[in-house]
Amino acid sequence: MERMQIKSLLSYGNSGQEVSVCGWVRTRRESKGIAFIALNDGSTQDTLQLVIAGTSPAFRKLTLCNTGAAIKATGVLKDSPAQGQKFEVEVSGIEVFGDADPASYPLQKKGHTLEFLREIGHLRPRTNTFGAVFRVRNILAHAVHEFFQGKGFIWVHTPIITSSDCEGAGDMFTVTALDPEKLSKDCRGVDFSQDFFGRRAFLTVSGQLEAEFLAMSMGDVYTFGPTFRAENSNTSRHLSEFWMIEPEMAFADLKDDMQLAEEFVRFLCVRVLEKGEGEIAFLDKFYKNTSIAGLKELSEKPFLHISYSDAIRELDKATEKFEFPVKWGLDLQSEHERYLTDKVFRGPVIVTDYPEKIKAFYMRLNDDGKTVAAMDVLVPGIGEIMGGSQREERLEVLMERMQQMQVPREGLEWYLDLRRYGSAPHAGFGLGFERLVQYITGMHNIRDVIPCPRAPQTIKF
Ligand code: 4AD
Ligand code: MG
Question: For the chain, which residues make up each domain, given as ranges?
């Protein structure tokens, strides 16, 4: 179709050049016998202005070029006299692929609420807001690979269907080929040896355990894939299906882990500033929850560090009333996390050395015997975006912790093998990709940063 993307045309086009562009009509107006169409093709935040003279044969097609119509326009690229745009197209021909009936097309020019747009998830990427968010998501996804590949990490593909419960939180979706009509909700009494895999299988909650055996052979690895949680959380930061990035490094401790986490977030900000300035400027203008200056600061300022015990002291001092109790030994709730990032530190903070009882079995026990070498990265407005740790590499200590936490050894003998043969200190973390996109774009609801959000009672498409 000899189509040129609007993005490349605006960057590399030359005045006087013959061009063909395809896209969806955002607006159409007429003034003094000349028609103007703002065309967007999704490649950029910007629209391209099409100018159709009343004398042009294309003018007759305009009745089929309503907001939302898909068209192709051919013509000559011209320097635009109008403000805020470099070029416009003097149109000689228009082909209409499909019009959109103004009486029923839901995305007329007026502003829509994010709640309304969530109901038309298949059309919302056509809006400025979702176009911006999904393009930033793409920039970030690409930058993830760029960062790790640049550091010599190997991208490994851990399974989506798994037999192990990494986090031990029991919030896994079961994958079964048994007759669903005959299964009970708690799966009690079900003989999974008769099932497809000969034992119970789940959708993964994390690729970490498998990434560990790859790190213990290949050195530095990372995963980037979908993960699933069956927890019944209807919040602005929880999804049932989300993407996670999990680096795992051999011969590394918690300090190395934190350094990597910080460097990683900084790198991602730099790339968004380089490639998504238009998107961030748009989101700043309309939602005021992200900004170029803010991302620049984030890309330069070191993260603050605080131990869990000191964080509890900070929270104890707070005059603010919390819904959940603050007490050494209890987990930090999102209100506590946000108090630390938004009120105390006014920026990202890494909390380390949590009580062993509230963290997963694989985290390395500290010398005090009470805490583990864990770290959570907390950011303003959201709370936790990353969780990681140095892993317990000592066989005896690991086995004891598993026993205390009632993690069955059955099915995890291979994990213990890694401690039996050539065990070494190693560490890693998981970054929730949607929480990252939320943080960078400033979107309040996690359902607005993924094209097809999955949450309890929510599964359109
Ligand atoms: O803290 P989590 O549960 O840690 C792990 O799964 C480790 N195995 C990671 C590792 O060390 N390799 O999850 C990691 C991150 C969280 O910090 C959060 O950003 C995100 O995953 N996350 C969620 N994001 C969206 N919806 C949910 N329900 C999430 N649960 C966790
Ligand atoms: Mg966590």
Answer: 6-105, 125-169+205-448
